[in-house]
Amino acid sequence: MAHALYEMTFFGYCSKVVSKRVEEEKHILDERYKEIQSGTAQLIPFEEVMAETNYVDKRTPEEKDLPLSKDMYSSHNLCYNNLY
After folding, report:
1. Pick from 31-35, 66-70, 78-82: least confident
2. pTM for the full predicted model
3. What residue segments make up the domains of the chain, in order of their start?
4. How far apart are CA 43 and CA 40, in angstroms?
């Protein structure tokens, strides 16, 4: 939240520009979804992305097996519902 406020105060905020950008992002996401569903997307294995970004997953095997928490589902749903 603090980062968003910083960006808004430093760069200014225009709802028309933001709305246009949101629509552009929705279009991009729709195109990517169609590519994935049709099998034409060029997917990169998760492990390869992690190796390229030097990300180290420090979770224990038990933590990796845990399902997403209700809070995570709620935040994901809130985000996606706001997009559509």
Report:
1. 78-82
2. 0.48
3. 2-83
4. 9
